[in-house]
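One chain given next:
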Amino acid sequence: MNKLRFPLSIILLAALVQGCASEKPRFELRTGDLLFSVDKENSELVAAIQSTTGQDKDIPFSHVGIACLENGKTYVLEATSPQGVVKTPLKEYFAKTATLNGKLLIAVGRVKSEFEFTIPGAIKNAAKHLGKGYDYAYCETNDQFYCSELVRFAFLDASGKPIFAPLAMSFRDPQTGDIDAYWIRHFEKLGQPVPDGAPGTNPADMAQSPVIEIIYKYY
């Protein structure tokens, strides 16, 4: 019985096609996408944020920024400590993000279609705060910003109200129910009471907001 023989070029072409078919499609960020991430720096601040927010979530995100594409380059508008509100090249944003098994701990959230109209204004709103300080007091009225606060006041509806609803902030250890020792020391240095229960937001809960969809995970 004669065996069928195929030219080597056809075999290689078939293997290439099969490989491409199984390859994960490349993801492209869009302006207005939200990058929820875990900071690489293992600081006490990041640890405190992660321990008091985002319980029972997939990843306890400690940071969020807004993607902005300009002239073929991608930046992230973000409020970060200690710099304040800055525009960071995407490569630098990736470099300061923690990894798991070699993959970046970043999830991408995109506002749902009914809120797409807020994106151009969100970029302008965030950009007008460039250079302002980081909000160590976690106060919504002091014209300084922490990461998710910047996002919250960037995305506004037609009446000028944030599309992200405020949440009652918690600075308590979920295991004991007591205010975390880090936050007690933190606000003592500021000469202020811990604003437990005050309106605010955090990256872990914002990632669960009904106004967005998580459309991609780098991990």
